[in-house]
Design goal:
heterotrimer; B: 328 residues; mainly alpha; two-stranded antiparallel sheet; globular; C: alpha/beta; 2 domains; six-stranded mixed beta sheet
């Protein structure tokens, strides 16, 4: 209730002429935006643990992003929802914060993968490997693991470096993941798209195998049991390890990632990537350095993944190799396919939707079915691979551009690229190979 | 070193056996790739379903105690036949529902759909057999479990003995039969020739009166049947199956197809056999070579991947293939 | 009734309308040529007839039967043989196998052997090359193979798309001689050519196609004499 009061208070303290401006602008949009915000907030605060409430709040945020209202008001209302209502609900029920952090991680991951798949047209099926890289880099040094193979740590920091070192490790994790991206990218960038897919898939498996087995001869990764406990970060002496405070770090990561993606999309690099995706031969003829551009996108996407890996390690307090399986890579792919390849807003929505489904609605439904005494074979939480698979198939057949298609693709390509009237022949277009 | 050499023949045999499985599965990948230029990601799951159908047939034979009364070879044929029919039908269905609507779309589109199908089938198998048998990890009723012992021969002053499981012999013999039948079929029959024509130039094949859709369906049925046969053989030889046996084996079989030259049937066979042998060698000797620092079996799955990268970087056309570069 | 009739046929590539309403007829036993500049819609017309492209409007009839909604293999079965532009030999099938593919729709027992024998009589060069892969043939040989391959199916009408393209002048002469010779044995031919002079010399009637529409039509001799045709397509003044 405090949050609403605070919101109302700030709303009332605006200068009057601003109000006048607003009302003369788009009155219905304004009223709807305010109404949606208030209703969602009230529901969220009244029922913090409800998945439906979170869905409403996020839906309200999405509606705001479309509403025809003044940009500053949009920012204010969204800030109110994301920095006021949701964290407040998190203090009422820590599950909300936990879910939201997970969602932020997935949104950032999906945005990073979207750079690789959606912008650059490279189907990376081992994206989770970079995530694992970032997670391991931090976890090894922020736990007792480093002491097991580095004498300095054994002597000086047997429990590893936590606290503010998190911030120092962040660029390191980004770098390590980017380096992994380049190491994988260099040999594979010249391959055609489907080979690249299978090689990256293999890479993901290899990273998992290495993480599982690099406890001998030197115990670096902790082997199959993994690493625990992992120290929490601090910020100006504040403990940031709790879900309620990690929420803010996650939100900042997501906002920064989204801004970065927007900037990349509208930069020279973004245009070069788009050109390359649509027709790499023409792009090469226009002087786009193909391999360099692909590598850049690949490594940048990888580094986002690495950064989020750190956050994930902090959130979980432990990591093990099983966390970084192929299904995670496909889960993130399903998010961006569902939302819309190349569409930043779409990818965010897709990631949020899949996260909600995985971590809120499926468990809710399972609990429900268990209550009704249904056998555990109908435990819906186990059906995730089936659901991911269905998302991929159904979207490819019925809605290749996703729920919220990227606007840019449509501009000039759709007219020429319509389905050719070829029933049996035709070798297919060379787009996005 | 002496000891290492003495186990070599045994290692080669086990490599050859798994190599035959890779080869038969690789044929399915390479056929579809040859015709559609597309990785049928779901092929590994079609293999896996073959293993589960084979399991069900063997369970039935065991329940009716036919398994002990029928000649073993009849049980084997029944098992393989059922797996082949089911997997062939599954291959047909998958193409019809998930790939055909996407023909002519950008390359990544059917590929993503195929990944979806793969995940869907894997989980579907888990759900089905969990409901059917209460468990998705299943022990396969025994068939051809004996071991043929050869030797001992006196080699370098010590006796050398070879142990070849009957299951391994079954895999090698049926693998050879399937490979040669397929190569004969594709090269000599009318449908086989139409298949090659469709692979080389789809619209011209249509102008010759070839029903391209039907030929593509046929390709999926044959590829699926081979995958199913390989699955049932896997179940017989390795006696324990899960819905997840297809995934890694599929990646390796695809590697074998690329290694031999994608689109080339003989290449897939050679690639599969070589990959099996390399993998067996690596698994056996990595430990001793690193003085025990690295455990060979743990890193087994990495060898195929390394070969894949090396082949794609240095000889993307594969051993027997023609260049399939980006078209310019 | 004409053997082949096109009535107001329209075909589009996505948003681009390539054929804006083509009407033409081919009578039994005729050579009809379709001439026009690059991109006028000549190949599109043939592809639409053979079913590789589906028209958005209009009708195509073969011997009175509608064929415009049929897939290409059905059109072939009904008796339309299409020698595609650029020959499109199957590069990794042997010459003999390429010919066999031409007889794919025939089920009589001896169709393949007889057809191959006929082809070798018509094009003796192919006999020497029978075991070679199609991709290893020269351009002229490939053109011969492409024609022989389509003749294997004993089409009611033979459609040829630029048979002289990229060939040495002496081979061009040969190809046109063979076309005339085929016609004398009763084969109906629809010929698409950029070499308008040669095409009009061999044909009975002709159509001039311009940006997806028929601009002119008439007996070959009349077109040959038409000043606008002479200026635009024959390079004469």
């Amino acid at each position: 209730m405090n949050a609403i009061k605070k919101g109302l208070k700030s709303a009332l303290s605006w200068p009057a002429h601003r109000f006048a401006q607003l009302l003369t602008a788009e009155r219905t949009a304004l009223v709807t935006a305010l109404l949606v915000t208030v209703l969602a907030s009230a529901y969220q605060v009244a029922a913090p643990a409800s998945g439906l409430a979170i869905l409403c709040t996020l839906g309200a945020a999405l509606a705001l992003s479309y509403a025809g209202i003044k940009p500053w008001l949009r920012v204010v209302l969204m800030t109110f929802l994301l920095l006021g209502v949701l964290p407040y609900a998190g203090t009422l029920n820590p599950g909300v914060s936990s879910l939201m952090i997970q969602m932020f991680i997935y949104i950032a991951l999906a945005l990073g993968l979207n750079l690789v798949v959606g912008f650059a047209g490279l189907l990376d099926l081992g994206y989770i490997a970079f995530f694992a890289g970032g997670a391991y880099v931090y976890s090894i040094f922020a736990s007792s693991q480093a002491a097991k193979f580095l004498p300095w740590f054994a002597a000086n920091a047997p429990q590893g470096l936590g606290g503010w070192w998190f911030w120092a490790a962040l660029p390191l994790a980004l770098l390590v993941a980017a380096f992994m991206g380049i190491a994988l990218g260099l040999p594979v960038m010249r391959m055609r798209g489907d080979y690249l897919a299978i090689v990256t898939l293999g890479f993901g498996e290899v990273i998992q195998v290495i993480a599982r087995n690099l406890d001998t001869p030197i115990n670096i990764t902790g082997g199959a049991p993994g690493i625990a406990p992992i120290q929490a970060p601090t910020l100006f002496g504040m403990d940031m390890g709790q879900p309620t405070s990690l929420y803010y770090i996650g939100l900042v990561f997501v906002v920064l990632t989204a801004i970065a993606m927007y900037r990349i999309e509208h930069s020279r690099v973004g245009r070069a990537l788009a050109a390359m995706r649509e027709d790499d031969i023409a792009a090469r003829a226009m002087g786009v350095p193909l391999v360099k551009m692909k590598l850049l996108a690949f490594a940048t996407g990888a580094s986002f993944s690495g950064g989020m890996g750190m956050l994930f390690a902090v959130k979980q307090h432990f990591i093990n190799p099983d966390t970084f399986g192929f299904m995670e890579s496909i889960g993130i792919l399903a998010m961006i396919i569902l939302g819309g390849l190349g569409s930043i807003r779409g990818v965010i929505v897709g990631a949020a939707a899949v996260t909600l489904l995985r971590f809120q609605f499926l468990p809710d439904l399972s609990a429900l079915s268990a209550n009704w005494g249904l056998p555990s074979a109908i435990d819906l939480t186990k059906y995730q691979p089936l659901i991911f698979g269905l998302i991929l198939i159904v979207m490819m057949i019925y809605r290749q551009d996703g729920l919220i298609p990227a606007t840019r693709r449509k501009e000039n390509i759709a007219a020429l690229e319509g389905p050719l009237p070829v029933p049996a022949g035709g070798t297919g277009t060379s787009v996005a190979k | 070193m002496e000891e290492g050499l003495r186990i070599l023949p045994q290692i080669l045999i086990s490599g050859l056996v798994i190599g035959f499985l890779y080869a038969v599965v690789a044929l399915g990948y390479t056929m579809v790739y040859g015709v559609l230029e597309f990785i049928n990601f779901a092929h590994s799951e079609i293999f896996m379903f073959g293993a589960f159908i084979g399991f069900e047939v063997l369970m039935f034979l065991q329940k009716t105690s036919l398994l002990t009364t029928l000649p073993m070879v009849i049980s084997l044929i029944l098992t393989m036949l059922a797996a082949m029919i089911f997997s062939g039908a599954l291959g047909w269905t998958v193409e019809r529902l998930a790939y055909r609507p996407l023909r002519g779309a950008p390359r990544l589109v059917p590929l993503i759909s195929a990944i979806g199908v793969s995940f869907f089938l894997q989980d579907a198998a888990r759900i089905i057999w969990e409901a059917l048998r209460g468990n998705w990890q299943l022990a396969v009723p025994p068939l051809y479990t004996g071991v043929l012992t050869m030797g001992p021969w006196q080699v370098a002053g010590a006796p050398l003995q070879l142990q070849v499981p009957y299951g391994a012999i079954v895999i090698m013999v049926s693998g050879l039969i399937m490979m040669f039948s397929l190569i004969w079929f594709v090269n000599k029959t009318k449908v086989g020739k139409a298949m090659r024509a469709v692979a080389q130039d789809r619209s011209t094949a249509a102008l010759m009166g070839v029903n391209v859709d039907r030929i593509i369906s046929t390709t999926f049925v044959i590829g699926g049947a081979l995958g199913g046969a390989a699955g049932s053989l896997f179940a017989i030889r390795y006696t324990s199956i899960t819905p997840y046996i297809g995934f890694i084996l599929g990646v390796k079989a695809f590697t074998a197809a690329v290694f031999g030259g994608i689109g080339n049937l003989a290449g897939a066979v050679i690639g599969g056999l070589l990959l099996g042998i390399f993998e067996a060698l690596g698994t056996a000797y990595l430990g001793p070579l690193t003085h025990g620092a690295l455990k060979g079996p743990e890193y087994k799955d990495i060898f195929a991947f390394l070969i894949l990268i090396l082949v794609l970087v240095f000889k993307p056309a594969g051993l027997l293939g023609r260049t399939v570069g980006e078209k310019v | 009734m004409a053997l082949l009739e096109l009535e107001n046929v329209q075909t589009s590539y996505g948003a681009i309308r390539a054929l804006k309403g083509i009407s033409l007829t081919v009578e039994q036993g005729e050579i009809v040529t379709l001439i026009g500049s690059n991109g006028a819609g000549k190949s599109t017309t043939l592809k639409t007839i053979s079913g590789l492209l589906r028209p958005s409007a209009g009708e195509i009839r073969l011997g009175g039967q509608r064929i415009d909604q049929l897939p290409p293999h059905r059109v072939t079965e009904l008796g339309i043989g299409h020698v595609p532009e650029g020959r499109r030999i199957f590069p990794r099938l042997t010459v003999a196998e390429n010919l066999e593919m031409g007889a794919y729709t025939l089920s009589e027992k001896n169709a393949v052997a007889d057809g191959i024998e006929r082809s070798f009589k018509l094009f003796p060069r192919l006999r020497e090359r029978a075991k070679q892969l199609g991709g290893t043939l020269s351009g002229g040989e490939q053109q011969m193979l492409a024609m022989a391959r389509t003749l294997m199916m004993k089409p009611k009408i033979l459609m040829m798309d630029e048979p002289s393209m990229g060939l040495a002048p002496i081979l061009v002469e040969q190809i046109f001689e063979i076309i005339a010779q085929l016609n004398q044995t009763g084969v109906t031919i629809l010929l698409v050519e950029q070499n308008a002079l040669k095409a009009l010399d061999v044909a009975h009637r002709g159509y001039v196609i311009q940006t997806g529409e028929i601009a002119l039509d008439g007996p070959a001799a009349a077109l040959r004499a038409d000043p606008s045709v002479r200026l635009a397509y024959l390079g004469e003044i």
